[in-house]
């Protein structure tokens, strides 16, 4: 809800969140998320391991309690068209007059 920093319900057992105010506890940077540990935002920890040959692991940035979006291996190819497939398998294309990075997700 607007104004809330966290919401752990009325029977809150999360030490990072004040259930009365729905604000973070004193000294807490976060209350939940893949990159939140002991109420602090982590930096450099793997929050999502690689799942294939052309998937890259994601690391906590130190700026957010959430894991960043999925990254894929780049293959540098010359040409005017950039193509990549979304995690759902949809093909996306964009045009560039420079060398482009070709992102693919290994579907093996």
UniProtKB/TrEMBL annotation:
Q: Name one Pfam family in it.
A: Disintegrin
InterPro entries (alphabetical): Disintegrin_dom, Disintegrin_dom_sf
Name a biological process GO annotation.
positive regulation of cellular extravasation
Describe the location of the Disintegrin domain by residue ranges.
Answer: 1-69
Q: Which UniProt keywords apply?
A: Disulfide bond
**From which domain of life does this come?**
Eukaryota
Question: Which GO molecular-function terms appear in the entry?
Answer: cell adhesion molecule binding
Q: List the disulfide bonds.
A: 47-67
Q: Which PANTHER family match?
A: ADAM A DISINTEGRIN AND METALLOPROTEASE DOMAIN, DISINTEGRIN AND METALLOPROTEINASE DOMAIN-CONTAINING PROTEIN 8
Name of the protein in its database record: Disintegrin domain-containing protein
């Amino acid at each position: 809800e607007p104004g809330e920093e966290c919401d752990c319900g009325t029977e809150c057992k999360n030490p990072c969140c004040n259930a009365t105010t729905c604000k973070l506890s004193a000294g807490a940077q976060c209350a939940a998320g893949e990159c939140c540990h002991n109420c602090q935002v982590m930096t450099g920890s793997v929050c999502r391991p690689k799942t294939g040959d052309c998937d890259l692991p994601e690391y906590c940035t130190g700026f957010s309690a959430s894991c960043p979006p999925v990254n894929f291996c780049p293959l540098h190819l010359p040409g005017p068209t950039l193509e990549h497939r979304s995690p759902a398998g949809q093909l996306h294309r964009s045009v560039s007059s420079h060398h482009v990075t070709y992102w693919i997700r290994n579907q093996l």
